[in-house]
Specification:
Bound molecules: 5'-O-[(R)-(carboxyoxy)(hydroxy)phosphoryl]adenosine, zinc ion
Radius of gyration: 20 Å
Order of helices and strands: EEEHHEHEHHEEEHHHHEHEHH
Distance between the termini: 33 Å
Length: 345
């Protein structure tokens, strides 16, 4: 039995969780900063770190008390130490270091992207046993769109990545153009029609380079131009037509989802995958979840939406695997942040 504290502060959520055996969530607290950043239409790094400072102590205490756990009961304290916003990462890492060193508890630094993959191990799943490696993993978030081949625990090859914007970033920008607020992904999903949209956007086609790469900047320009032609952007005194906004949101969502699913399918076929893992905030998207399952004839593990967006449980789940592999694993006080850390290269 292992009981691990997971601390996540790489972006705009201060999130802390207690997880048993890498798969059973005992407590999961997420202090969201959405209300603070929403008026700015995106995340303001300085505001994010200031809010982490305010939230980190109470969030750790709440996660421990909800789990009825004392620090001495923990087998390890895990923390995201990259990639992410430097100021935000520093708050979580320094807090974890202080907590671990003052209580003599092992400290484990975790890659945020790897954490998103290990969200698939939560809620008593074990993709390694249930499906077996190799697995194709798509991590689609506000900062990354990475397609990875996972051939074992901790063994990744980067198969494709975005050449420009991340999928979540594209959702956020499109929502701003359509006046739907922040964060954009859930807002676009909320207004999009459940049938095929009347507004269609074409896919990016690459003349050269890696066909498993993604590109979303053309789509972003396409929706901006369409909104300008339709008189929806820049915002003006004429109230926008709700049905038009809905069709544009739907078409945009379909284009992003098609781009993601087609590459996941291609990667799964090329590398003879036994299953698919979806992770990151964009994996909370219901169209993406449905289309992946209906298009690809393989088991698909996609965590519940609350575990796709940033959380501390995925960090603890990943740390559990690392400790299984090396029970003496522990960083010392020199654990550093890696704001641009990548996975699989
Ligand atoms: O993984 P995450 O919580 O934070 C990062 O690591 O970036 O991802 C946040 C991103 C945001 O861009 C947000 O718009 C997007 O995930 N997102 C969604 C949905 N929920 C969150 N995108 C599409 N559909 C959703 N339902
Ligand atoms: Zn994330």
């Amino acid at each position: 039995m292992s009981r691990i504290l997971g601390i996540e502060s790489s972006c705009d959520e201060t999130a802390v969780s207690v997880v048993d055996n890498g798969n059973t969530i005992v407590s999961n607290i997420i202090a969201s900063q959405v209300d603070i950043h929403a008026p700015h239409g995106g995340i303001v790094p300085e505001l994010a770190s200031r809010q982490h400072v305010i939230n980190i102590g109470p969030t750790v205490l709440k996660a421990l008390s909800d789990a009825n756990t004392k620090i001495e009961d923990l087998d390890a304290i895990s923390v995201t130490n990259g990639p992410g916003l430097a100021g935000s990462l520093m708050i979580g890492v320094n807090f974890a270091k202080a907590l671990a060193s003052s209580t003599d508890t092992p400290l484990i630094g975790i890659n945020h992207l790897e954490g998103h993959i290990y969200a698939a191990w939560l809620e008593r799943n074990d993709p390694a046993k249930d499906m077996g490696f190799p697995l194709v993993c798509l991590i689609a978030s506000g900062g990354h769109t990475d397609l990875l081949l996972m051939e074992g625990h901790g063994k990744y090859t980067l198969l494709g990545k975005t050449r420009d914007d991340a999928a979540g970033e594209a959702f956020d920008k499109a929502a701003r153009v359509l006046g739907l607020g922040f964060p954009g992904g859930p807002a676009i999903q909320r207004v999009a029609p459940t049938r095929r949209s009347k507004e269609q956007f074409s896919q990016a086609h690459f003349k050269s380079g890696n066909p498993l790469d993604f590109s979303f900047s053309g789509l972003k320009t396409a929706i901006l131009n369409r909104a300008k032609i339709l008189g929806l952007y820049p915002p003006n005194s004429t109230p926008p037509s709700e049905s038009l906004i809905s069709e544009l949101a739907g078409g945009f969502q379909e284009a992003i989802v098609t781009s993601l699913v087609s590459r996941v399918l291609q990667a799964a076929q090329t590398y003879n995958a036994n299953g698919i893992i979806l992770g990151g905030g964009v994996a909370a998207n219901s169209l993406l979840r449905e289309q992946t399952k209906s298009t690809i004839d393989l088991p698909v593990i996609v965590p519940p939406p609350i575990l796709c967006t940033d959380n501390g449980a995925m960090i603890a789940a990943c740390a559990h695997q690392k400790l299984e592999h090396d029970p003496s694993l522990s960083s010392d006080i020199s654990l550093d942040i890696h704001p641009t850390w990548r996975l699989g290269i």
